[in-house]
Amino acid sequence: MTTGALLIAAYILALAIFVGLELINKVPPTLHTPVLSGTTAASGIAVIGSLYAAQNTQSTLAAVLGAAAVACAAFTLVGGFVLTGRLLGSKQKESRG
Amino acid sequence: MKPEVLRGLVDLAYLASALIFVGGLKRLTKLRTARSGNLWTAAAMLLAVVATLAELGTIDYQWIAGGLLLGSVAGALLALGTKPQSALGPVALLAGFGGVASALVAVSAVVVAVVEPGLPGTVAQRIGLPGATGVVVASALALATWLGAMALLGGVVAFAKIQATAGKSIDVPARGIVNSVLLAAALAISVAFATVVDTPEAVTLALALLGAAGALLGAALVLPFGKKEMPAAIALLNGFSASAACVVGMTLDNAGLIAGGAMFAAASFVHATLLLDAMNRSVASVVFGSPSADAAGADAESRAYKDVRSCGVEEAAMVLEEAKSVVVVPGYGLAVAQAQNAARELSLQLEKRGIKVRYAVHPFSGRMPGHMNVLLSEADIPYEKLVELEAVNPAFGETDVAIVIGANDVVNPAAERDPESPLYGVPILQAYKARSVFVIKRSLRAGHEGVKNPLFEAENAMMIYGDAKKVLQSLTSELKGGGMSHAA
């Protein structure tokens, strides 16, 4: 990473934080748990970094650590999205009576 | 394809993915669009993963495929084996694993750059980055390590606390000091790691210490949260996981990861404060202060209650918008506030949206028998909308929202459950059976009989504090304006 790239990264970081602060400002009480589960799934974005680590060919140890990271992040992603879907699904069934 | 062209396309895909994320999370916070919101965010994540795999190109896929398969199957099994009503524990675990993934990436990067070559030099020098950039990247590796460890142990502790039957808040002695010392240690080791530590052995030791300090901090942070405050603890852990992902993005110079991580971290921290606000707590009071500090300003009545949640008019309106049937339970508070006309305005607004509105009248509501009937007929609320106790109680189970307006003893479930209660045996309106209950009340003060009302602590109940007339009027204007007109 060069100093220029570092500056661009700082721009992205600052703007993304502002977008994030505005994203969730009002949550209807019945949606708090699904939103929590949904943002947990989103924190599985760590999978992107994990993919880079797992494809390391210089070091087996690094690749193993990377593969473990991929597994952890995929666990969060898939578990989070499926669980959120189930939470919202049961809400809908409920309101149909 | 030229590498720089591919890189550009990948960055464009990340941008598209980030935009879909923004839309998806927005949709997730609205009742009508929540399901599609979840699909949007999942699709955005899939796009980001595919873009990353495309950039990696034809490489050795065995580790990636193995990891993806193992994690996905385990995640799907966990999610499918979880009952929706007990989802919170698994969500806590998931939050922890998202964080540890980033810590593992950082450790893996340090292994490649410093540990395996076994050559002297600071982390920045070994990565081959000069000056400030190298220090930033090395700091990011340190941060990712302890933030990830923090999310992992925090998540595991949260999971254990949620599953435990007692699940009380455990007071870490002098937790303000403990948390501050751990945080200071993690920061100090991070600075040393990024600047002065310059042998492979010392780097390994520093990394291990960072992981340990982070893990302890995660545990110390989550322990003081009570069972009902756990959603806020999980939101905080999500924030740490996402922050760790963001700093890993800095080390990889990956715009998608920086943007996504920062965005989710900010959104999660906001969600944590929203969840704590609803319980009248603040992040600082849970992390550094004692719980009694919160209650100090409160009066004796509200101290009798634990874990009462409140919400604003806007949030209540969002739930009302999606309801199909609403039952209004008027009480003495309605009479005092002279809110009968405001109640009628609200029901007219709800009926305009096709929502069925009824009034549940308890013979003893108000100051005298029949008080409510008189008030409601004064406001020209049609007689057939008033339903008597015996008729309405079976209907509460099929009701989406019960709005309790200044009523207390007549909806107190202790009358059915608690033989010790002075109300025991008195027939009540079973508002607690409704899917959501909003209680409009000026404070948690006891009703005529002077007893505590467990309804206010119920999972499906939310207090809306304020004068009945004003609250009803702002609910009505919220519904009229589709939620856009009011800034309060």
Give an account of the 3D structure.
Chain A is an all-alpha fold. Chain A has one domain. In chain A, 79% of the residues lie in helices and 0% in strands. The longest helix of chain A has 37 residues. Chain A is flat. The termini of chain A are far apart. Chain B folds into three domains: 73 residues; 208 residues, no CATH class; 180 residues, Rossmann fold, CATH 3.40.50.1220. In chain B, 53% of the residues are buried. In chain B, strand 2, helix 17 and strand 3 form a beta-alpha-beta unit. Chain B is built from 20 helices and six strands. Chain B has 488 residues and is an alpha/beta fold. At the A-B interface, helix 1, helix 2, helix 3 and helix 4 of A face helix 1, helix 2, helix 3, helix 4 and helix 6 of B.
Tag the structure with descriptive keywords.
heterodimer; A: 97 residues; mainly alpha; 0% strand; flat; B: 488 residues; alpha/beta; 6-stranded parallel β-sheet; elongated
Q: Low-confidence parts of chain B lasting 5 or more residues at pLDDT below 50?
A: 292-298, 483-488
Low-pLDDT windows of residues of chain A: 93-97
- What is the molecular shape of chain A? flat
SSE order of chain A, as H and E? HHHH
Number of strands of chain A: 0
How much helicity do the residues of chain A have? over 70%
Q: Please name the two chains that share the biggest interface, counting residues whose Cβ lies under 8 Å from a Cβ on the partner chain.
A: A-B, 88 and 118 residues
Instruction: Determine the N-to-C terminus distance of chain A.
Output: 56 Å
Please outline the major beta sheet of chain A: none
| Distance from first to last alpha carbon of chain B | 53 Å
Oligomer: heterodimer
